[in-house]
Amino acid sequence: MRAVRYERFGPPGVLAIGCSPEPHAGRGEVRVAVRTSGVSPVDLALRAGASPSRDSLALPHVPGVDAAGVIDEVGEGVAGCAAGDEVFGAVDVSRLGGACAQFAVLAFWEAKPAALSWEEAGAAATGVETATRALDLLGVREGKATTLLIDGATGGVGSIAVQLAAARGARVVATGRPGSEGFLSALGAVPLPYGPGLAGRVRALGISRVDRALDVAGAGALDELVRLTGGAESVVTLADATGPSRGVRLSRGRFCGEPDGCHGLAVAAGLAERGLFRVPVQGVHPADRAAEAHAAAGTGPRLGKTVIDLAALSRGGPAAG
Ligand SMILES: NC(=O)c1ccc[n+]([C@@H]2O[C@H](COP(=O)([O-])OP(=O)(O)OC[C@H]3O[C@@H](n4cnc5c(N)ncnc54)[C@H](OP(=O)(O)O)[C@@H]3O)[C@@H](O)[C@H]2O)c1
């Protein structure tokens, strides 16, 4: 099959279309003919050779953890879906990629709601899973009035966390780069600029108490978030490895023994059907320009996800090389 791949670690320019062995759906999995795949920070770190998982990566490697497409193979033990179904989901994280190809095997998935475009659906899964897991860990739930601060909220995970938290009834204060206020307000948050002095800016809003905080960016705000919430136990970080030394939980997902947030896909799909959830997409790039997609995803400002359109690989168009 045709796939976006890299044969060596390096800058986005190492990405090129080439041939790769077709994967097949194992037990509990489905295979999809891929339409779209969102770019995640883990894809960038792996490609650059900057991930601790670098040594376990066999080259050439096909990047991409999120995908949307049409099921064409159903693995043993899978019920409730069939070839031809349109779905969105993610590969098994232990595979570290495989979505940027004609065919990809998904470990978890959900029916694609008509309300989400292919571009949105292919960019949703990691953000939804991660945000759901973090909100569960923070105890943000319906029927419990919570003011939640999300630091670094305009990117892939943050823009989804804002909406899922708002849907659970939380009042969400979300930070972004100056200029992103309209984007964050439209997602349902009270916007604030990120950076030092956050506590003062929160107080200036007239908010006397922040109950919980989610550090998405890992940009050094943990001490301030702990002060704002009044305790390290009220803060979760997704990206700051120093969290545990400060008593802050670092959420890493099911491979580190945490309950996953995959149940969030069905919730997000339901919210999308009711017009209460979308996946902000910053840009869409064809497969033969995957390098541009990685370059765009790797630099701010970010207003949602960057997506690679893989449909041309299956059509045998120019991108099929
Ligand atoms: N632990 C897990 O399970 C898990 C899962 C998924 C992702 N992650 C990690 O979580 C992080 C975020 O993922 P993502 O997909 O949302 O990344 P992303 O799309 O690249 O977004 C990063 C966000 O951080 C913002 N940011 C940059 N500098 C900041 C600062 N000084 N203060 C506050 N915010 C700042 C960015 O804004 P601008 O670029 O506009 O400045 C953007 O909104 C990444 O480090 C990723 O590796 C962890």
Structure, explained:
It is globular and about 55 Å long. It is built from 10 helices and 15 strands. The chain has 321 residues and is an alpha/beta fold. Strands 3, 4, 5, 6, 7, 14 and 15 form a 7-stranded mixed beta sheet that branches. Strands 10-9-8-11-12-13 form a 6-stranded parallel beta sheet, with helices on both faces. The chain has a two-stranded antiparallel ribbon with strand order 1-2. It has 2 domains: 2-124 and 279-320, Medium-chain alcohol dehydrogenases, catalytic domain (Quinone Oxidoreductase, Chain A, domain 1, Alpha-Beta Complex); 127-256, NAD(P)-binding Rossmann-like Domain (Rossmann fold, 3-Layer(aba) Sandwich). The mean pLDDT is 95. α5 links the parallel β9 and β10. The site of NADP nicotinamide-adenine-dinucleotide phosphate has 29 residues, from α1, α3, α4 and β9. This is NADP-dependent oxidoreductase. Keywords: NADP. It comes from Streptomyces tremellae. Residues 10-308 form the Enoyl reductase (ER) domain.
